[in-house]
Design goal:
Elements: E1 18-25, E2 33-37, E3 50-57, H1 60-65, E4 72-79, E5 84-102, E6 161-164, E7 167-172, E8 177-182, E9 190-194, E10 207-219, E11 239-246, E12 254-258, E13 271-278, H2 281-286, E14 293-300, E15 305-323, E16 382-385, E17 388-393, E18 398-403, E19 411-415, E20 428-440
Antiparallel strand pairs: 1-2, 1-4, 3-20, 4-19, 5-15, 5-18, 5-20, 6-9, 7-8, 8-15, 9-14, 10-13, 10-15, 11-12, 11-14, 16-19, 17-18
Biased composition (Low complexity): 100-110, 129-143, 321-331, 350-364
Region (Disordered): 100-149, 321-369
């Protein structure tokens, strides 16, 4: 019909509004990392151009994968109902802040003990204050993040733990009992715990969570211990943590996979898993609402392996807070090419990531738009993704239109150049901005 399409950007259970899809994984990596970025502050006009502004906090996966070749690594402009045409113009992806960890009081455990910790005195703050940008959602800290966020972490009973396409039983642990998952026909199966939403109000954007547990793997048929290389992030033969979260009515599942590359693996004994997760916008905005799926799962290992876990803790270790950039650095990119920043001025706040986390050397590539052909005057670096893209009339000059879309996941895609992203360390905030409209084909 050509009629403009209405949508509600504040409804994060709907995919009727435009959104950004990130995908990244290695050519040999069976785990695809997906991130979906919305623009809840957008004032939607069904008959005109709209200003999309999305925020993404670089997490460990992006930071560790940034220096390696990928099979899939792209940004895609997608969303909208089936049969809708999406038109985009003036697309920019820029660095706005770098989040740096604020040290916690010395009496706060940065890595949880395997038993219940001694309560922190109420006179001492248990979490560094969060100074998130005003445009980002915040939540009020509670006392629930002072200790282990998981139930029955000592694994002395099955309790809050569940089997996920496996069979779980109690077995001998490091001390006392542990939980064993057997009958596993896929690496994605294992030991799961549904998370209680109301316990996580203290998790704001930039909060670092530590996931620690004892773990071992053995072959179910032979009982022999299984070897794996924790530093190989293209393999799923080592244990890993799976997070999943989405609403009951939300068609977008958010997946996060947490590895432990520093783990010293002993195939015949217990191993110390230590994983790190930086709370992003999706976790922070979803944390206060009921979810259909929101769980942590201990998974990984080859088909036919038995995974045994004990003494599992999930604790808050740091809160990342934004370090202000110099006043001459654009915190939201202009829709045209920005004036180059003088080389004498730092273009990115220094990253003070914990020593155990990977870092990368900043380059000048993050001083301006990280995307190619962002003005949309030519198709250039943009591609169709299960759609047909053409040039059309833009805000000024040309824009790119995607039509023939039979799913919301289709749209306008650009493959990302890996070498341009060495400046993206853990805690870097990226801003994605563009003009967009939707109409019925």
């Amino acid at each position: 019909t050509g009629a403009g399409i209405s949508c509600d950007p504040t409804d994060d259970t709907s995919i009727d509004c435009p959104l950004i899809t990130f995908r990244h994984n290695f050519a040999t990596d069976p785990i695809p990392f997906w991130n979906y970025i919305r623009s809840p502050e957008m004032q939607w006009d069904p008959n005109g151009w709209n200003d999309f502004h999305g925020v993404y906090v670089v997490d460990r996966d992006w930071a560790t994968h940034g220096g390696k070749d990928k099979h899939w690594w792209y940004i895609m402009i997608s969303g909208g109902p089936i049969g809708s045409v999406i038109v985009a113009d003036d697309v920019t992806m820029t660095v706005g802040h770098t989040l740096t960890p604020t040290p916690l009081p010395t009496n706060f455990p940065t890595k949880a003990p395997t038993s219940d910790p001694t309560p922190v005195p109420t006179s001492a703050p248990t979490k560094a204050p969060s100074q998130n940008p005003s445009s980002l959602p915040t939540s009020t800290p509670t006392s629930n993040c002072e200790s282990n966020l998981l139930q029955d972490g000592d694994m002395e009973t099955i309790g809050a733990w569940k089997a996920w396409r496996s069979e779980i039983i109690l077995t001998t642990g490091v001390t006392g009992k542990a939980i064993e998952a057997k009958g596993r026909t896929k690496w994605r199966t294992g030991i799961r715990q549904d998370l209680v939403v109301n316990d996580f109000a203290c998790l704001t954007i930039g909060t670092i969570m530590h996931i620690d547990f004892k773990v071992r793997l053995f072959d179910e048929e032979t009982g022999a211990g299984i070897s794996c290389d924790p530093t190989d992030d293209t393999s799923i033969d080592c244990p890993l943590i799976t997070f999943r979260h989405n609403f009951a009515t939300d068609p977008i599942p958010f997946w996060n996979y947490i590895r432990s590359p520093e783990m010293q693996w002993d195939p015949n004994g217990w191993n110390d898993f230590h994983g790190v997760y930086v709370v992003d916008r999706d976790w922070a905005t979803h944390g206060g609402k009921d979810k259909h799926w929101w769980y942590i799962m201990i998974s990984g290992g080859p088909i036919g392996s038995v995974i045994v876990a004990d003494d599992v803790t999930m604790t808050v270790g740091h809160t990342l807070t934004p370090t202000p950039l110099p006043t001459n650095f654009p915190t939201k990119a202009p829709t045209s090419d920005p004036t180059p920043v003088p080389t004498s001025a730092p273009t990115k706040a220094p990253s003070q990531n914990p020593s155990s986390l990977p870092t990368s050397t900043p380059t000048s590539n993050c001083e301006s738009n990280l995307l190619q052909d962002g003005d949309m005057e030519t198709i250039g670096a943009w591609k169709a993704w299960r759609s047909e893209i053409i040039l059309t009339t833009g805000v000024t000059g040309k824009a790119i239109e995607a039509k023939g879309r039979t799913k919301w996941r289709t749209g306008i895609r650009q493959d990302l150049v890996v070498n341009d992203f060495a400046c993206l360390t853990i805690g870097t905030i990226m801003h994605i901005d563009f003009k967009v409209r939707l109409f019925d084909e």
